[in-house]
């Protein structure tokens, strides 16, 4: 806690320090604090983020024993298909810490960005409180129970009963932050920055800043708010004086004009900062920094969405919160890496389904220009998995407050969603609940529209909804939000009619498709493009997610154990791109690129959320001359296919052919190359080469340097390659990882649909899939050089180095 040592200095008036290291963890049966595991129990050291479900053994829900102890003895809950066959249950965390003496007289807070779920937090035996929902942040004031003459003990209990429709993960899976402030300070999330107007090159910035006086005396302070531009240059400043009685809190409103404003947009995500200083008698008591962006949004029922006056179509994906082989553990780089990969495939928008994401994820969306729908709930009063509905009336306001206050300064957030396919949408009470939620959102942030995602059935939208089935949705319900999200609107009726019919019937309604199926994506998108007013589309899903097993299956039986994830993503759980991701990129952006892929045989009808099983490879165990179907996706006017330099013909690849062409190709080892043409000129190509026998391992790290903070990660891709460096997708071997230096293995695995029963994600071995695997290493808090070596019997080993500093 080096930063805390300086907490008494003027330059260190506020300390925000990661509190992720030095924890201990144990699974335990249901118990109270008085029955918590004693010191002799097998506590293990862990660092946060930590997901204890992903560390567990995959278990078929029909099995009873788990190792030597029964499920009942461990107090576990067994995961079903929906939660990926990984167990949940109760567990305990504890951490001992000592604060420096100069923290005495300060206020000390603990901020959890997410704990799944039903957490209880204790400090030195005193219960600080409990938090039910697993996806919203919460905080506690530690000050009344702190000790400065001996170590403090923090204890956290969690219990995941696995009442979810997807994999949630278990435990303290997001960051924990310790915050030390003066008694007179700005509370956590105590600033609110808006940019209501941009006039030419000048932008109006409005700020609302809370100041809290937790001292025993009345205070007169000055609030100084400085605006720093993206290059860290101060461009505006405003000062205000305030008086506060003991125990009082005041909101100070200020506004400034920023000249030559650099606007935040998906193409140029420029970020400013407000530095808010609380000063008394010339001494800084507190400093709070708030990133924000200057941008304007307009939602129009006829013209659609404009960002900074520019028409913008939402090329979106829905994603759940997990990080594949890391489970729900939310590292800053894991979240940013996901955003970068989605941007590379042409995506400009994410709908977070169906809960608020981590703060790291929103920071990444701000940084890289990703538009966001921030969503609250999958259940209201009527349940699905009955994970939240039993406590909805008790906790909805607390959780929406957390989401709004934490996230409302993020320029990436463009809409607040109050729910997804809630059964209440068809109930008599549905409109009143929607009005209650939407009105409350507007009380905390009136600058963004509210939305809700419904699943229509094609019934008359103008008539009152009926009790019971969730698919009946009334205009009374939909009119409670500003923007209407349709799940599978085009999919539920004949293509081309629904949005247009709704626009005629409800001309003031603003609409977008909040979920869509992959199977008819081309037609969906063409229908959306034929209008100005439909904002865009969010495909289900951008990334494969754990749980809801087999939702996008491409082979029979993949919805059952030992399969463990949904398989409907454009990227797999390692974020390796599937062929369908290139097709979507072409459909979205009409880019002059080509991508060749080969259809696999022996497939049943593909699931609507899935895609035909194809391979971007020309390495097959096929007899010479065997006919293989080759699809070429192309945003060019024409494509030509070559096999070993010989043309197999040129074909149109425009809208009329759904931006693709197909050839029946007799298999012959060598090179298959697709070339794209615009106005007769070759402008793009994509080549697939037959791989020879694998002789060596390739190992590439995505980051050469990571931070020595104990919770930074680097991803290393392992590939099995031939002497020319071509990956052989048919090679499957066991690999072993050896690490030296200040790092540990955070995860190792592949995109194989079957659970790695013999290869735990936290082990040092894996069986490759499609000729590759993914390794994630996590730094410790010591600097140094990390050596990574990957070996496999009979192959030349590979080595890489990552610096920790």
CATH class (first level) name of the largest domain = Alpha Beta
Main pleated-sheet profile: 8 strands, parallel, barrel
Distance between the termini: 17 Å
Count of folded domains = 5
Oligomeric category: single chain
Major sheet: order of its strands?
24-25-26-27-28-29-30-31
**Helix residue percentage:** 10-25%
Number of strands: 48
- Might you state the CATH topology name of the largest domain? TIM Barrel
In CATH terms, what is the architecture of the largest domain? Alpha-Beta Barrel
Name the CATH superfamily classification of the largest domain.
Answer: Glycosidases
Query: Shape, please?
Result: globular
Strand content: 35-45%
How would you state the average pLDDT, rounded? 92
| Helix-strand category | mainly beta
Tally of helical runs: 10
Contiguous low-pLDDT stretches (5 residues minimum) are 6-11, 65-69, 458-470, 492-497
* Rg (CA only): 27 Å
Please write out the topology.
Blueprint: E1 15-18, E2 23-27, E3 44-46, E4 65-66, E5 69-70, H1 71-74, E6 89-97, E7 107-112, E8 119-123, E9 126-131, E10 138-141, E11 152-160, E12 176-181, E13 184-185, E14 191-199, E15 202-213, E16 219-228, E17 234-244, E18 249-258, E19 272-280, E20 283-292, E21 297-300, E22 304-307, E23 310-311, E24 314-319, H2 332-344, E25 349-352, H3 359-368, E26 371-375, H4 392-407, E27 413-420, H5 430-444, E28 450-454, H6 475-478, E29 483-487, H7 489-492, H8 498-505, E30 510-516, H9 521-529, E31 534-540, H10 579-589, E32 594-599, E33 614-615, E34 627-634, E35 638-643, E36 646-652, E37 660-666, E38 671-678, E39 681-689, E40 696-701, E41 705-706, E42 713-721, E43 734-740, E44 743-749, E45 765-767, E46 772-779, E47 784-791, E48 798-804
Parallel strand pairs: 24-25, 24-31, 25-26, 26-27, 27-28, 28-29, 29-30, 30-31, 41-48
Antiparallel strand pairs: 1-12, 2-3, 2-6, 4-5, 6-11, 7-10, 7-12, 8-9, 8-11, 13-15, 14-15, 15-18, 16-17, 16-19, 19-20, 21-22, 22-23, 32-33, 32-34, 34-37, 35-36, 35-38, 38-39, 40-42, 42-46, 43-45, 43-47, 44-46, 47-48
Helix pairs in contact: 2-3, 4-5
């Amino acid at each position: 806690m080096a930063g805390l040592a300086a907490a008494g200095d003027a330059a260190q008036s506020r300390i925000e320090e990661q509190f992720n290291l030095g924890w201990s963890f144990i699974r335990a049966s249901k118990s109270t604090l008085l029955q918590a595991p004693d010191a002799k129990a097998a506590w293990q050291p862990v660092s946060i983020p930590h997901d204890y479900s992903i560390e567990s053994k995959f278990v078929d829900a029909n099995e009873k024993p788990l190792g030597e102890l029964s499920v009942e003895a461990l107090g576990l809950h067994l995961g079903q298909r929906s939660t990926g066959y990984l167990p949940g249950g109760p567990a305990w965390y504890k951490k001992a810490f000592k604060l420096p003496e100069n923290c005495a007289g300060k206020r000390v807070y603990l901020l959890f960005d997410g704990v799944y779920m039903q957490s209880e937090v204790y400090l030195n035996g005193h219960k600080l409180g409990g938090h039910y929902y697993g996806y919203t942040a919460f905080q506690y004031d530690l000050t009344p129970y702190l000790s400065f003459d001996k170590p403090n003990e923090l204890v956290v209990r969690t219990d995941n009963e696995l009442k979810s429709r997807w994999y949630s993960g278990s435990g303290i899976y997001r960051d924990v932050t310790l915050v030390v402030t003066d008694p007179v300070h700005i509370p956590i999330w105590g600033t609110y920055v808006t940019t209501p107007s941009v006039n030419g090159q000048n932008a109006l910035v409005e700020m609302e800043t809370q100041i809290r006086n937790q001292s025993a005396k009345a205070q007169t302070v000055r609030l100084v708010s400085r605006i720093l531009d993206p290059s860290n240059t101060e461009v505006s400043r405003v000062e205000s004086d305030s008086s506060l009685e003991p125990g009082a809190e005041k909101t100070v409103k200020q506004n400034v004009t920023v000249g030559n404003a650099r606007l935040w947009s998906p193409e140029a995500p420029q970020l400013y900062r407000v530095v808010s200083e609380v000063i008394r008698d010339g001494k800084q008591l507190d400093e709070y920094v708030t990133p924000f962006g200057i941008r304007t949004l307009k939602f129009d029922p006829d013209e659609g969405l404009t960002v900074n006056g520019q028409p913008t179509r939402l090329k979106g994906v829905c994603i759940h919160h997990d990080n594949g082989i890391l489970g729900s553990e939310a590292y800053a780089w894991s979240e940013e890496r996901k955003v970068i990969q989605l941007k590379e495939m042409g995506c400009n928008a994410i709908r977070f389904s169906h809960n608020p994401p981590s703060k790291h994820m929103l920071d990444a969306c701000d940084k890289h220009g990703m538009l966001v729908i921030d969503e609250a709930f999958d259940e209201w009063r009527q349940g699905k998995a009955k994970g939240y509905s039993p406590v909805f009336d008790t906790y909805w306001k607390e959780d929406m407050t957390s989401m709004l206050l934490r996230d409302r300064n993020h320029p990436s957030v463009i809409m607040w969603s109050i729910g997804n396919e809630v059964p209440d949408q068809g109930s008599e009470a549905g409109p009143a609940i929607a009005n209650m939620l939407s009105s409350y959102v507007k009380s905390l942030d009136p600058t963004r529209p509210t939305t809700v995602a419904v699943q229509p059935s094609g019934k008359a939208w103008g008539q009152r909804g009926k009790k019971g089935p969730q698919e009946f949705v009334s205009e009374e319900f939909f009119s409670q939000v500003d923007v209407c999200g349709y799940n599978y609107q085009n999919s539920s009726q004949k293509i081309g009619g629904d949005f247009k019919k709704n626009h005629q019937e409800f001309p003031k309604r603003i609409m977008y498709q909040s979920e869509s199926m992959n199977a008819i994506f081309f037609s969906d998108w063409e229908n959306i493009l034929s209008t100005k007013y439909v904002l865009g589309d969010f495909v289900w899903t951008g990334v494969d997610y754990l749980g809801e097993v087999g939702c996008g299956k491409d082979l029979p039986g993949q919805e059952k154990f030992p399969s463990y994830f949904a398989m409907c993503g454009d990227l797999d759980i390692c974020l390796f791109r599937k062929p369908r991701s290139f097709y979507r990129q072409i459909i979205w952006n009409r880019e002059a690129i080509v991508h060749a892929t080969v259809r696999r045989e022996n497939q049943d009808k593909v699931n609507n959320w899935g895609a035909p099983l194809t391979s971007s490879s020309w390495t097959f165990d096929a007899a010479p001359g065997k006919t293989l179907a080759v699809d070429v996706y192309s945003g060019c006017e024409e494509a030509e296919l070559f096999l070993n330099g010989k043309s197999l013909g040129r074909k149109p690849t425009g809208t009329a052919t759904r931006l693709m062409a197909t050839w029946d190709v007799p298999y012959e080892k060598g090179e298959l190359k697709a070339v794209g043409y615009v106005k007769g000129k070759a402008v793009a190509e994509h080549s697939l080469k037959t791989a020879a026998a694998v002789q060596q391992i390739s190992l590439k790290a995505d980051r050469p340097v990571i931070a020595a903070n104990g919770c930074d990660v680097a991803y290393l891709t392992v590939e099995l390659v031939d002497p020319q460096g071509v990956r052989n997708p048919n090679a499957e071997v066991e690999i072993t990882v050896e690490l030296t230096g200040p790092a540990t293995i955070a995860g190792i695995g592949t995109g194989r649909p079957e659970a790695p029963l013999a290869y735990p994600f936290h082990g040092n071995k894996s069986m490759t899939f499609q000729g590759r695997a993914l390794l994630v290493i996590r730094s410790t808090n010591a600097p140094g050089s990390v050596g990574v070596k990957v070996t496999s019997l009979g192959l030349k080993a590979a080595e890489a180095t990552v610096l920790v500093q």
